[in-house]
Amino acid sequence: MTNTAPELNTPAIPAESIDSANTPAEITFADFGLDPLIQKAVAEQGYNTPTPIQAQAIPHVLTGRDLMGAAQTGTGKTAAFVLPIIQKILRHASSSASPARHPIRALVLTPTRELAVQVAENAASYSKHTDLRTAVVYGGVDMKEQVGLLRNGVEILIATPGRLLDHIGSKVANLSQVEILVLDEADRMLDMGFLPDLQRIIDLIPAQRQTLLFSATFSPEIKKLAQSYLRTPVTVEVARQNAAADTVKQVVHMVSSADKQRAIVKVLEARTRQGLSRQCIIFTNSRLGCARLARALERDGIKAGAIHGDKSQGERTLTLDAFKSGAIEVLVATDVAARGLDIPSMPCVINHELPFNAEDFIHRIGRTGRAGSKGDAIALVDDSEKRLLDDIEKLMKRKLEVAALPNFKQEPGQTSDPFFYKPYEATKPSQSNDPVQSSVTEPKKVGIVSAKPAVGALLGGFKKK
Ligand code: AMP
């Protein structure tokens, strides 16, 4: 099948009519003028209304503007760039088997393999009714399968920078026909030291390209990156800069490090009593601490799994799948490993310790309260972490509520919960029409939306129906 999409799409909503502060509420996917093949795929995902970042970004991307998007994972940002990308390159779609007819047209760079896999899954779902091919390449796994996919030809490539450079070095990947470049979670790519890799990669892409940069925060370094590689970009943002979602209730408990594990158990017990989900991500700063905490919680009878950099890709996938299915209720994670995980319904995030980098705190608590749902973010802070707390408060430009740690012991005859003298807000099943919010409350839609292909099968490419 060859698609006959128009060369230049004219969206029904002019890009300039949408500004970040004032997103028209009544926008539908049909308003973007996307090809029916894309609209069909979107409808199959069960999305009714674009999320704010989608409403803001899609018209700009369709008109060819470079764009800086301030949006965290969980806001629908992936579809905000993937849908218009598919629309724009659809004119190249070809049913020919010849690799020459399938050069890389769109390149998405991500900091981690988890995010790469998730973006690729989205791209595969949204393009499944077209002849466009999608593949993902990342490090830590054998190159062979990826080489096969790249040699066959692929229009949309999602990659982590290091592994992409390996494939470029062995002449398996060629970027000379890339029209659209996306730097996803650019702040994290810089944090992880990918700048030299990014520079090498971008130098291989034609200057006549469209560049989209997404980042949870706009640090001076990100602004510098944008100045170097984006041309008069339009900026769209869905949350206040350096702010957590308003739907997240944040609490700090001052607790000695020796008592932190016990405090977690208390938090989970209290959530059970209050009829709240026990599902949570607990963040730790080190791989060792992450593994230890998960084991200790298991000894306390809590179904816990650990996800950190020392785990193989296969182990991470298994743990993540178990978490998404509910077989594990507590995921203990380090920042890097948790980056980009698509778990829309996360009701609670616990910081077992504060991150050394204040921006990481925003990423961590961004795991909850996503797409308008409510969430609790609980930080367990000991005296030695007060300086880190100061940094976080400075970055967020607000003081966090400190709840004095109540007595751990239940006094005889005491009926109220000593730990929760002030209960966290329950997340009630939503009656809202907001599709993201309602998807959050439906267990079926938790996690990765497209069940196929399974994460474990995603070593590289996606087969079309
Ligand atoms: P992202 O921020 O791209 O990681 O997306 C977060 C979650 O929202 C994913 O599970 C998406 O499948 C889902 N999602 C994206 N766009 C929409 C939409 N318009 N309506 C409902 N859910 C969406």
From TrEMBL:
Location of the Helicase ATP-binding domain: 58-236
Pfam assignment, any one: Helicase_C
Gene3D superfamilies: P-loop containing nucleotide triphosphate hydrolases (3.40.50.300)
Annotated catalysed reactions: ATP + H2O = ADP + phosphate + H(+)
Domain of life: Bacteria
Residue ranges, compositional bias (Polar residues): 428-441
Gene Ontology CC: cytosol
GO molecular-function terms, A-Z: ATP binding; hydrolase activity; nucleic acid binding; RNA helicase activity
GO terms for biological process, alphabetical: response to temperature stimulus; ribosome assembly
UniProt entry keywords in alphabetical sequence: ATP-binding, Cytoplasm, Helicase, Hydrolase, Nucleotide-binding
Motif Q motif mapped to chain: 27-55
Domain Helicase C-terminal stretches: 259-413
The protein's name: DEAD-box ATP-dependent RNA helicase RhpA
Lineage: Bacteria, Pseudomonadati, Pseudomonadota, Betaproteobacteria, Burkholderiales
